[in-house]
Specification:
By secondary structure, the protein is of the alpha+beta class. The chain has one helix at 2-31, and strands at 35-46, 59-60, 64-68, 78-80, 83-84, 91-96, 102-106, 110-118, 121-123, 135-138, 143-155. Strands 3, 4, 5, 6, 8, 9 and 10 form a seven-stranded antiparallel beta sheet that branches. Strands 1, 2, 7 and 11 form a four-stranded mixed beta sheet that branches.
């Protein structure tokens, strides 16, 4: 009788350890995240390089950050310069920056177009050879660093 009890207890302890390891393994995988992180700046006025004057990214700018499926210029409709209408591609999500423009957003691995809310439009910092706006590539397990510099009111 003692051996049956001891065997049952031993199996229960072994099963508990095995299940505990599975749970810890699942938790560590769930904690791995990826996405984008950085800061939004706004530049204003004369930004021409001047002797003795350091380069300025501008000041931190509190705004909404918008993540869309990859978006080309035709899908957004240009208002002026780098400011566009609401893109017709799928919105993945929108996120609020802090008061200095800092953000950190979890995203699944993949390619995205990043816009920031600016005045009455959507600001994209760049476009590539395919005319895709604000493209960023998110890789599993890493946060892509980004600086968004709004230069619509700057002169060069």
């Amino acid at each position: 009788m003692k051996s049956v009890y001891a065997t049952t207890l031993g199996l229960m302890l072994l099963a508990g350890l095995f299940l505990g390891c599975l749970t810890v393994n699942k938790q560590s995988k769930a904690q791995v995240a990826q996405g984008i992180q950085g800061q939004v700046f706004e530049q204003k006025g004369n930004q021409m390089p001047q002797k003795g004057k350091p380069f300025s990214k501008g000041v931190g700018y509190a705004t909404q950050l918008y993540v869309f499926e990859p978006t080309n210029i035709q899908s957004a409709g240009q208002i002026s310069g780098n400011i566009f209408n609401l893109p017709t591609t799928q919105l993945i999500g929108s996120f609020t920056t802090d008061s200095l423009g800092h953000f950190k957003v979890n995203l699944a691995p993949g390619r995205y177009s990043i816009f920031v809310g600016y005045e009455k439009g959507y600001y994209a910092t760049s476009f590539n050879q395919l005319n895709e706006l604000g493209i960023v590539q998110v890789v599993a397990g890493t946060f892509v660093p980004m600086e968004v510099i709004i230069s619509a009111k700057a002169s060069y």
